[in-house]
Amino acid sequence: MDKYIGMDIDNKKIICCTVQRNKKEKYQTIRPTIPAMKAFIKEQKSDGSKVHMVYEISGQAGYIYDSLSGCANSITVANPSKMTWIYRTAKKNDRMDARKMAVLLSIGEIPWVHMPSRDIRKWRQMILHRKNVVQKVTQVKNRTRALLKSEGFSEPYDKGSWWKKSNRFWMEQLAKEDNIDSFDLWRMQLSNLLEELHTLECQLKRVTDYLDKYLSQKKEADLLMSIPGVGPRTTEAVLAYTDNLNRFDNYKQYCSYFGLTPKLDESGSTRRLGHISKHGPSAVRWVLCESAWKVIRKSKGMREFYERVKSGQDSRKKIAIVAVCRKMLCIMRAMLRDNEKFNEKLVCKVCNNNEQRKNVA
Length: 361
Prior knowledge:
Elements: E1 2-9, E2 14-19, E3 26-30, H1 34-45, E4 50-56, H2 61-68, E5 74-78, H3 80-86, H4 94-106, H5 118-150, H6 165-175, H7 185-215, H8 221-224, H9 232-242, H10 251-257, E6 262-267, E7 270-276, H11 282-298, H12 300-310, H13 317-338, H14 344-360
Parallel strand pairs: 1-4, 4-5
Antiparallel strand pairs: 1-2, 2-3, 6-7
């Protein structure tokens, strides 16, 4: 006999709902700890039943998955945003949520989430951490420039970038002025901003060095970085979130996972395609978009594809660059599947063949 257990996990308690065929569902409240969850699963298996459990994705989902691996016969992590549309109820509480998950799991309709290994999860966390540090560095630089401009320094001491060595030395000299009075408190603020910037840049270098070292161990990295304009940051993001390429049946599923497929609204003879869904990892879309601008400058085939989508209209630049991002993902999937490096001639040939088919249609 199979038992399907839905767990609504809270910080203070876990509501468990056990569903069995031809039996009334049972509810039980346990403590939100791994030992308590293991004891509960062991109790449910004591009568010889197979236990299949499900819980919603959260910040601790990976830790729970690793800790309970081997205790239950199967563990499924559910996507709550999709589950709401599959199983609607007029009321909502913890017991109902637990029962909803258990019922959907028993009929094979639970919207599950792929749970990568611990190494991949930590890799993803470091990628997101680096992105956050980069954003903080940008914020501090913007605040520093705004402070200097508010004091009449609209341009740096030396022509060029505000952040080259000569201009940084100039800022440090401004911040080290002696005898600061109430009218010169901005110098203290500038000093704090420069110290914060130095700390963030040291953190960024340490994280970047680690990610570069980790990426060098991945044999697939050389394949993706053979695309002109694609660097290590884009490569590591795509590889980390792809994880296992075999879980995608085709390129449509692959692009949909990264949120680069348009929304569809179809009814009868009416079919509308909207903006991209933006589901999935935003960090990958961000680096793909940054790389796409470089790719269209260095790759003839991708440049022709960009110009064709743009159709000579500046208002279609964003649409065209998103199309390039999607095309890059399709190419990356093919390269990883076939274990081949970027082939400029093949890209030009495929793009031209697609255009000819559209013209014939």
